[in-house]
From TrEMBL:
Residues 113-430 form the CHAD domain. Gene3D superfamilies: CHAD domain (1.40.20.10). Residues 15-25 have a biased composition (Pro residues). Residues 1-111 are annotated as: Disordered. This is CHAD domain-containing protein. Residues 1-14, 26-46 have a biased composition (Low complexity). InterPro entries: CHAD_dom, CHAD_dom_sf.
Amino acid sequence: MRRPDQQTTTRPTPDAAPGPTPDTPPAEATRPGPGALPSGAGAQQPTDRIGPGAQHLADATGPGAQHLPGGTGAARRPDPAGSRADGHRPTGSHPAGSHPAGARPTGARSAGDLTTEAALAPYLRGQAAEFLRSLRLHHEHSAPADSGGQDAAAATRALRRSARRISGCLHTFRAALDPLWADQLRAELAWLSGILAREHAYADRLTRLVEALHQLSGPALPAARGVRAAGDGATSDAQGRAALGVGAARAGALLERRLTLARTRSHSAALQALGSSRFHAVADAVALLASDVPLAPGPAGRTAEALLEPAEHAEQRLLTAVAALPPADTEPYNEAQDAAWHQTRLLLRLHRYAHEVVLGATDPALTGAGHALDLHRDAVEAAGAAAAAARTPRIAPATAYALGVLHADQRHEVEAARAVFRETWPYTVALSAS
């Protein structure tokens, strides 16, 4: 574990000079953002204020946008990381490119500027303004003509990116904000992000699986799957390639039917959601956030520790989750282990957002690890889609064989992504403890 005199990666040094905040990091893979997490009750945020940011909604929401419902009825999911274990941080060392002992990137925020008014409130207002701009662009590029499809997809990604960051900060820094307001808005943003993600998730999954089928049905199977015993190895490989070639086309057609249907339904659900009163309530609440951030009552929530302690807690939960990951020599087809990796991806995202708030910059040391976890998630979901298609009743044996090979290929991609994560994870000592 870290020594008491070692600085965490999310605590700025007192002598650091403030500087400009860098741009938002690149868009992540399209998937639902962090869900609503449990929290206590607090004073309800008034809903009769309309800030100047509501002007951005003229084209997208129309008149009569409703506010978020009051009360405590917002759906919540359990805390993804559980309680803090023993209050200790897992063994680890600061990576190169992180920020031990005052070495932080240019433009990072100093400790003197670390208050909710100086750090958290401007961050949330900026993300709310980006949300409203993306919403306007999405409305402009979602005309009946199909020519703006790419621009609409980019606007949707930007919309979800802002929603994820707002939701993550509302969870991590809930103690510094109006708790009831934060819980309600976080739950609604999680719903919106999930609705918008599904259509593009199905499209990306279909592209991934079809490309993998083309590669697997080529002139030769990959070496890891084509090794046979001496003597009948050549004959078995030839028969396997022939069977895979026959079933690959049918398997691709089956996957295209299933995933295209799912994508169409998700598109319809997204359009319905964007026209619903619930969405207008979310957009109106974000418009209020762009002009006014409801902070916790009293001076306690406005100190530097109100941001430092939650950010360090988010880092602690991430390191604990990484230390608990299954070791490298486990069975790659054990799908019960996928949940722990998905949990780590969620906690890494929360840590990155807290890092942006506290230090005013992203942590470049975690870029590779985050990308590896995104690839892991994509491969897991693709393998699940192949397995679900193989359970279709009355399919030909060649089709089932091709889908089985495709499932095995994607599970190997899962293991490869885990290996990349272990190589790029900067806290090597903490990871080796698993």
